[in-house]
Specification:
The structure holds 2 protein chains of 2 kinds. Chain A contains 6 helices and no strands. By secondary structure, chain A is mostly helical. Chain A has one domain. Chain B has 2 domains: about 35 residues; about 140 residues, Sandwich (Jelly Rolls). Chain B has 2 helices and 11 strands. Chain B has a 6-stranded antiparallel sheet with strand order 1-4-10-6-7-8, with no helix packed on it. In chain B, strands 9-5-11 form a 3-stranded antiparallel sheet, with no helix packed on it. In chain B, strands 2-3 form a two-stranded antiparallel sheet. In chain B, strand 2 and strand 3 form a beta hairpin. The longest helix of chain B has 27 residues. The termini of chain B are far apart. The chains are: A mainly alpha, B alpha+beta.
Chain lengths: ~170, ~190
């Protein structure tokens, strides 16, 4: 029998999202406070502790409870991805980076998360608004596809490179 | 000052974060994997179980039918036959399952003078049509038992019961109240 998805998978996904955020914010460090990448690393470490506790108390916590606290952790991680996106768009007014971030980070992570959550919902019969999840999955997939087509076109890269050169000359 | 500048270089920060990220990600994945690989054991009813036959000689047979103890008799110089003391039933309604008989132990052990009181204790497995499917014979040569070999695996069709047929015989002039205890394992392939 193929192993089914455990609720801790969502915590694992959340950890990977925090690590991704940590590395990306380190790459874009001039636009963020210096401590941000390390804060995301600490958040990922907390997730690791989360999985360890879950394993130690596997017999005590029922699956329903395990699912909700792991799902909550994933929602926090996704919230941070969206928050960084909003930070670029609203606080920094960097629309091009915000759009690129939405296309290559925010929507793909939402697609992956929604896919696994809906999959788990089918297997474990968790009471979820399945229609809402499916609509969310379709919308995220469409936005991701459009982003790949338009926002990450060679024109945009060219534009970004040109803007950097102009900044350097100033 | 130079050292501080090197420490805060972007490349160094990135490499450090990359290494710790790899460490955290692989440790988390290892913990998750260890959870996935924990076996699930569910208590369920056995597929092959023992059921009392029409010729049940007495003994013990728990309701789950996972083991059985039969109290058989043997008469001196006369063959005693139990036509249907015990049934071996496949309770699975859709799948065939296989089983075999395997000798575990017998007492009195070979070499004991008590052994010569018995001539044979024969077990025969018959299928639902009455055809013989396996022989499992214990017989004696003076003070020694001739033990049976393990039977091949026998396939019982779904929702079918087979019969264990038993014949016993004690030696002429055998001492009464002498007991032989035989332990036989039934190996079932699920």
């Amino acid at each position: 029998m193929a192993p089914t998805l455990l609720p801790e998978f969502f915590a694992l996904l959340g950890i990977d999202l925090f690590l991704l955020l940590s590395l990306l914010t380190c790459l874009l460090d001039e636009r963020f406070p210096r401590a941000i990448p390390y804060i995301f690393q600490v958040a990922a470490l907390i997730g690791f502790g989360h999985i360890l506790v879950s394993r130690e108390f596997l017999a005590v916590f029922d699956e329903y409870m395990r699912f909700w606290y792991n799902f909550f952790y994933l929602v926090i991680a996704l919230g941070n991805v969206v928050a960084v996106n909003v930070y670029f768009a609203a606080a920094q007014k960097m629309w091009t980076i915000a759009k690129a971030w939405a296309g290559i980070v925010t929507f793909p992570t939402i697609v992956i998360s929604v896919f696994f959550v809906s999959n788990y919902g089918y297997i474990a019969s968790v009471e979820f608004p399945m229609l809402l999840l499916q609509v969310g999955l379709v919308i995220s997939a469409i936005v991701m596809g459009v982003s790949i087509t338009f926002f990450l076109s060679p024109d945009l890269l060219h534009k970004l490179r040109r803007r950097k050169e102009v900044t350097q000359w100033k | 000052m130079e050292v501080k500048r090197i420490l805060f270089r972007k490349e160094l920060k990135l490499v450090t974060l990359l290494l710790t990220s790899m460490l955290i990600a692989s440790a988390s994945a290892a913990v998750y994997y260890s959870m996935v690989m924990q076996p699930d054991v569910t208590v369920s009813t056995p597929t092959i179980k023992f059921v009392q036959g029409d010729d049940w000689p007495g003994g013990s047979l728990p309701s789950d039918g996972t083991w059985v103890r039969m109290t058989l008799k043997a008469y001196p110089n006369a063959t005693l036959t139990y036509d249907e003391p015990l049934n071996i039933s496949n309770t699975d309604l859709s799948n065939a399952h296989t089983f075999r008989l395997r000798h575990l132990s017998i007492s009195p052990a070979s070499g004991s003078q008590s052994v010569s009181n018995f001539t044979f204790i024969n077990f025969v497995i018959k299928d639902n049509t009455g055809a013989t499917r396996a022989l499992f014979y214990y017989n004696t040569t003076t003070d020694d038992w001739n033990l049976p070999g393990t039977t091949p695996y026998l396939s019982v069709n779904a929702n079918t019961a087979w019969t264990l047929y038993v014949q016993t015989k004690a030696a002429a002039g055998a001492t009464t109240s002498i007991e032989a205890n035989i332990q036989i394992a039934v190996d079932v392939e699920e």
